[in-house]
Write a structure and sequence with these properties.
The complex is a heterodimer. Chain A is 66% helix and 4% strand. By secondary structure, chain A is mainly α. In chain A, helix 1 (2-26) runs antiparallel to helix 2 (30-56) and helix 2 packs antiparallel against helix 3 (59-90). By secondary structure, chain B is mainly alpha-helical. Classes of the chains: A mainly alpha, B mainly alpha.
């Protein structure tokens, strides 16, 4: 029974990683590639780590496996966001099948200001915040 | 936060007093500590809201894992079949989250669910720009994102 669970977890994990690799090759532009690589690969790592935890069943190994899962879940979206954002603003072309882009008209490439499109006269004024860099 | 610390302290006390230093016994201690805290919650102001928060976190985890697997299968199907079914696009989502920490958590959760990737926050922190892979049904997608956001915010507030 446990053998079957382990086998299932490892095989599906490897399958999701394979999907991520295929996604890099097949998908048409940077942003869609980021979709495939980060999430499918993260899910693959999580499944394989669960299989490791089930196989060893030892407190030290299980704790480490869960630590790996938590760290992957914390870092993967940040990396995807940073790469995707940098690529978008540097000007990597979106795929020709892209249906809409609500960011482009709100972005000013000269001042790097990004509007929300919800501004009224009152809150469109630039007000310094505590978190602004000095 | 104080509730979580007390829960952990009670669990440690359980482990030390019962003399069985294993991970499973720590989990047992956590469960008993939680039951104790639920029982004394009406008398202690510092614990307000802790009992409802734990089942909420568990429910959110379940919801999130379901979304993760479902959407991963959808992206996987599109990668494997030759014609492209996807309709990618960038949409603007008005944020309910106000503080920097809340926005960070919401953006990370959105990035983690396949099919959506948070790109940037507007300078006035009111709108999150999201790259979505499947824009066939934009209303549906916006509803899902909103649900995810409000569920995540419930955990912090």
């Amino acid at each position: 029974m446990i053998e079957t669970i382990k086998g299932f977890l490892i095989l599906t994990g490897a399958l999701f990683m394979l999907l991520a690799a295929l996604g890099i090759l097949r998908l048409p532009d940077l942003l869609t590639r980021m979709h495939a690589t980060t999430k499918a690969a993260a899910l693959g790592v999580i499944l394989i780590m669960l299989a490791v935890a089930v196989h060893f069943g030892d407190v030290a190994v299980v704790a480490r496996a869960f630590a790996i899962i938590v760290f992957v879940l914390m870092t993967a979206p940040v990396a995807a966001h940073v790469i995707g954002r940098a690529g978008y603003f540097v000007g990597s072309k979106l795929w020709s099948g892209t249906v809409k882009d609500e960011l482009r008209p709100n972005y000013d490439p000269l001042t790097h200001e990004l509007k929300s499109g919800l501004e009224t006269d009152a809150n469109a004024r630039h007000e310094p915040r505590d978190s602004d860099p000095q | 936060m104080t509730g979580a610390i007390w829960n952990l302290l009670l669990a440690l006390a359980w482990v030390i007093l019962s003399g069985d230093f294993s991970g499973l016994n720590l989990v047992v201690g956590l469960v008993f500590g939680y039951i104790t805290l639920v029982l004394i919650e009406p008398q202690v102001d510092a614990l307000k809201g802790y009992p409802v928060r734990v089942p909420r976190i568990l429910k959110f985890l379940g919801f999130f894992i379901k979304e993760l697997v479902q959407a991963n299968l959808r992206v996987g199907f599109d990668i494997l079949t030759p014609p492209w079914h996807m309709k990618p696009g960038v949409i603007a989502m008005p944020l309910e989250a106000r503080t920097e920490l809340e926005i960070t958590m919401v953006a990370n959760l959105i990035s983690l669910t396949p099919g959506t990737l948070s790109l940037d926050v507007s300078d006035d922190r009111k709108v999150l720009y999201i790259h979505a892979m499947f824009l066939d049904d934009e209303e549906e997608l916006r509803r899902n994102l909103k649900e995810m956001e409000s569920r995540a915010l419930e955990l912090f507030r």
